[in-house]
Specification:
alpha+beta, phage-related protein like fold
């Protein structure tokens, strides 16, 4: 019988296994990828200095004053109310971790394998990333919910039938950011949506192309605007992206020997189509078209992942706690430049 190290009792007693010091494997996160915290919130965030909420101006109509005239025709000057205001409140989220003074001493060299505080902080930030991912791809079920931010489904309402600018107020709300888009007067404050039945070029892709064209608004009059340009992103789940990669392979006759040659390279109008694991639970298989020039994560000045501490826990003088806080919401300045396609 061959003798192994595990069979020698004294060796086991006096020798540690090689634990790969200062390293650890993280299997606590539940998604394969995160869009909110490491990507969107970092790349597109806008900072606001102060205020108990955010308000902005919206021109929802024009006076229709232009007309064709003949010589010596009398003037008829029309003045109309064409402006309204939109507003959203702040929302707040937090995470935390703690450690005991003697834990730190016990975790010091030479006995330290992995730094304890780094593990505790990683634990807290994974929880924050999970929460922000949920908040981005969901929204409150009613206006009485004062905790959840206004995530993407709040601004981009799915289709119940047909196609067009039919995305009115989200379910449970009588307005969207203070503007009632069910009122015909505010029909411009609606997102584009469409239903599809099949993930192929003649159904989903055809409607996707139409949505991209119909939401590409350009003002005929230069003016100061909240919009910061055209920065499009397209987001969907694996049911959609996996099938579209097969469609992409089918239209290419020179794929070589790679059986999955189009995996991870799907684009629409030269923009990557991004897989969102959080959307896998959405059985309507949505495809979101988002112009990040008009939809932005906004933060109160100084309150983006603000880390406070370590401070002593009251009544526990050897224990310290650290808090990481955010005051934020998602702001849309032009809903008609956003779309969703869903089954």
């Amino acid at each position: 019988m061959a003798l192994q190290a595990a069979d020698i009792s004294d060796l086991i007693t006096i020798t540690l296994k090689d634990l790969g010091r200062l390293k650890f494997t993280e299997i606590a996160s539940t998604l394969t990828d995160y869009v909110a915290l490491p990507n969107i919130l970092q790349k597109y965030k806008v900072q606001y200095q102060s205020g108990n909420g955010i308000q902005w101006n919206v021109m929802h109509a024009h006076s229709d004053a232009a007309k064709n005239v003949g010589l010596y025709e009398s003037d008829n000057v029309n003045i109309a109310d064409v402006m309204t205001t939109a507003n959203i409140p702040w929302r707040h989220c937090t995470t935390n971790y703690a450690f005991e003074r003697r834990e730190i001493q016990m975790n010091s060299d030479p006995a330290r394998i992995v730094e304890l505080v780094k593990i505790r902080r990683a634990d807290a930030m994974i929880a924050m990333a999970e929460l922000m991912e949920t908040n981005l791809w969901s929204t409150a079920s009613s206006s009485s919910d004062s905790l959840l931010p206004f995530g993407i489904p709040h601004w981009i309402v799915k289709a119940s039938s047909g196609e067009g600018f039919n995305g009115q107020n989200p379910s449970g709300f009588s307005d969207t950011a203070g503007i009632d888009s069910s009122d015909a007067k505010f029909s411009g404050w609606r997102n584009y949506n469409a239903q599809y039945a099949a993930i192929n070029k003649t159904d989903l892709v055809r409607k996707w192309r139409k949505a991209a064209v119909f939401t590409n608004f350009k003002s005929p009059v230069p003016h100061a605007s909240y919009n910061t340009g055209n920065n499009y992103g397209y987001y969907t789940n694996y049911d959609v992206i996996g099938r579209l990669e097969e469609v992409l392979e089918a239209q290419n006759d020179n794929l070589g020997n790679d059986i999955a040659s189009k995996d991870g390279v799907l684009t629409f109008r030269q923009n990557p189509v991004q897989y969102v694991p959080k959307l896998d639970s959405d059985t309507s298989d949505p495809v979101y078209g988002i112009n990040w020039g008009v939809l932005k994560p906004v933060f109160l000045s100084g309150e983006y992942l603000r880390e406070e501490g370590p401070n002593t826990v009251p009544g526990q003088h050897t224990t310290s706690q650290v808090f990481v806080d955010c005051t934020l919401n998602y702001l849309c300045t032009d809903r008609r430049r956003l779309f969703v396609l869903n089954k």
